[in-house]
């Protein structure tokens, strides 16, 4: 242990960053989540010069298999670690498919100002020009930096820093996939130093009202996707399966197709909370815009993607079932 260096814990969860392929040119069709955390650290000995690093294997999964239960386990472990004086920051290695969702969940339930940085890779560890090692090196430096304190959960990939709320995977395979849509990234990591230009304005971490430390399950919230010719089948099935909340990934500005509106309205009358969002990927779904939310007693999803609206609605339902209160939360987080 070097006294001057920050203490960073790496929590490994799997993903392509821990993946292996048959050959150095295998960049699709590889196996995710095979390399353990100690091997990940040993592959980048440079990080031991910038931080005192320790590793824990929390799970070993491809992130398409990430579940609410995994999130609760991860959040609880992070809160315990960050409560210790000998931990300055945390890096989570993670598959990229649901990385943005884990990041937003943690952004709402981590109770510390210390840096929490998610990192993954688009190429497996065995590939030519694998992006995992440099991403991990940058993430550790960011998690150990003073600059990252109090900024909420961050994503460090491709030399760029993004905030958990706004970042999304935007390309199926390229290494520059993580973007904050039209809102832009927060900064860069260059030469081992973070450069921040912007900061997230929505409340996060220590400023939220959510606490998962005593929870073992989250309320069931599902997403129903709209498209031309859509009918009520999926919505009715999701409600019948016991959903307490439904996020409607509407077309355009969160519009409700005529065959969908009665099914959503009936679900609301049964007590299911309905959030109107959009499948478009950019822009705001505002209250009483393309639908009369006051009359339907629905919640407008602001600019959250459907998958992130699901997370906020789950956490909201741990506190309240009032649409007014939930609408306030969607304007706050
Ligand atoms: N690039 C990746 O990490 C993709 C992988 N399917 C995962 O999310 O685990």
TrEMBL record:
Native organism taxonomy: Bacteria, Pseudomonadati, Pseudomonadota, Betaproteobacteria, Burkholderiales
Domain (L-asparaginase N-terminal) ranges: 7-200
Keyword Lipid biosynthesis (UniProt): no
Top-rank lineage group of the source organism: Bacteria
NCBIfam families named in the record: asnASE_II
SMART domains according to UniProt: Asparaginase
Organism from which the protein derives: Telluria aromaticivorans
Keywords attached to this entry: Hydrolase, Signal
A Pfam family the protein falls into: Asparaginase
EC number: 3.5.1.1
InterPro entries from the UniProt entry: AsnASE_II (IPR004550), Asp/glu_Ase-like_sf (IPR036152), Asparaginase/glutaminase-like (IPR006034), Asparaginase/glutaminase_AS1 (IPR020827), Asparaginase/glutaminase_AS2 (IPR027475), Asparaginase_C (IPR040919), L-asparaginase_C (IPR027473), L-asparaginase_N (IPR027474)
UniProt record similarity statement: Belongs to the asparaginase 1 family.
GO biological process annotation, one example: asparagine metabolic process
GO molecular-function terms, A-Z: asparaginase activity
Annotated positions binding substrate: 63, 96-97
The name this protein goes by in its record: Type II asparaginase
Active site: 16, 96
Span of domain Asparaginase/glutaminase C-terminal: 220-330
């Amino acid at each position: 242990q070097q006294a001057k260096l920050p203490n960073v814990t790496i929590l490994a969860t799997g993903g392509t960053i821990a993946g292996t392929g048959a050959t150095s040119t295998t960049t699709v069709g590889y196996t995710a989540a095979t390399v353990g955390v100690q091997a990940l650290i040993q592959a980048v000995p440079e990080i031991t010069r910038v931080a005192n690093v320790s590793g824990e294997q929390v799970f070993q999964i491809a992130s398409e298999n990430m579940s609410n239960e995994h999130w609760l386990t991860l959040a609880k472990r992070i809160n315990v670690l960050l409560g210790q004086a000998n931990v300055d920051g945390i890096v989570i290695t993670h598959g990229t498919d649901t990385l943005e969702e884990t990041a937003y969940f943690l952004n709402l339930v981590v109770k510390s100002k210390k840096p929490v940085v998610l990192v993954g890779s688009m190429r497996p560890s065995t590939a030519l020009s694998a992006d995992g090692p440099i991403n991990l090196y940058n993430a550790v430096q960011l998690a150990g930096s003073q600059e990252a304190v109090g900024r909420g959960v961050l994503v460090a990939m491709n030399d760029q820093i993004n905030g958990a709320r706004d970042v999304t995977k935007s390309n199926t395979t390229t290494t520059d996939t993580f973007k904050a849509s039209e809102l832009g990234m927060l900064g860069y990591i260059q030469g081992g130093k973070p450069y921040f230009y912007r900061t997230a304005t929505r409340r996060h971490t220590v400023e939220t009202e959510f606490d998962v430390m005593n929870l073992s399950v989250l309320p069931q919230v599902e997403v129903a996707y709209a498209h031309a010719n859509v009918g009520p089948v999926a919505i009715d099935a999701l409600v019948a399966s016991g959903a307490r909340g439904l996020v409607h990934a509407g077309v355009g500005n969160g519009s409700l197709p005529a065959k969908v509106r009665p099914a959503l309205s009936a679900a609301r009358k049964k007590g299911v909370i309905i959030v109107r969002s959009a499948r478009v990927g950019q822009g705001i779904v505002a209250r009483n815009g393309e639908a009369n939310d006051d009359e339907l007693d629905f919640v407008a999803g602001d600019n959250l993607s459907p998958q992130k609206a699901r997370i906020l609605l789950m956490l909201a339902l741990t506190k309240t079932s009032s649409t007014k209160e939930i609408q306030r939360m969607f304007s706050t987080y």
